[in-house]
Amino acid sequence: MQVSDSSSRILAGLLEARTGQQLTMNRRWRIETAVAGLLRERGIATLDELITILVMGREPALANHVVEALLNNETYFFRDRQPFDLLAAQALPALAIARADKKRLRIWSAGCSTGQEVYSLSMLFAENPMQWAGWTIDILGTDVSSAVVDRARSGTYTQFEVQRGLGITQMIRWFEECDAGWRAVEPLRKPVRFQVHNLLEPPPHPGQFDIVLCRNVLLYLSAEKRTLAFERLASALAPDGALMLGAGETVIGQTKKLAADRDCRGLYRLTEDPNADRREPRVA
Fold first, then answer.
1. pTM score
2. Per the database record, which ranges form the CheR-type methyltransferase domain (predicted)?
3. Which of 29, 80, 92, 280 has the greatest number of beta carbons closer than 10 A?
């Protein structure tokens, strides 16, 4: 399948308009693979025919399916293990002390894809039942893609997916075999919920999250959209909450509202800059 420059620009523009994500030149090689299945499913012969349908607006729902296909939904359990070790060893114990009176934690996984990050977080709590006995744990996973949110909500994964990042003991303990593959057991699913949400929109209810994870999402945004995303993330944090980004992401030069935690490398905290107010940003 030949992907012309004009087709690439149209699809890239559609993706950015719907999600804020850029399909930069060095990522446009993905187009052919990403939409091939959709073309077969819809009986569309060529990419040019797909573009014609999109431009003419004959099938409005098709644009959503194209955007879903173009999104990068790569994820796996305990991805890049170190961040989860950091949460388990430092961030969560500190919050256990700070929230000892209310015994409630709210965590938001933004850009959660098919949910492996959310269930990995749930495992951190499930594997320490004595420490978290009597606590209310609310783990929210959001993604701009309704298709991956539906999959995440089901908590069901293929044999390949459930083995990525999990040892055999964790796999057997926290997942049960079913007709569709392997499904997260009820204690793992109980604290989690999922919803469709665009990171560039106001934060999901209830806000004031103790921990927000937004890993490997911001790098796909333009500089302008990234600044807006940081505004949203900052407004979602509790005053003493923490933000975790991907290994290749940083707040430096992006926002004045967040700064690296000097005592806990890998986390970011709200600044005390009086000019960095937390009012909702205006959207043009």
1. 0.87
2. 1-273
3. 92
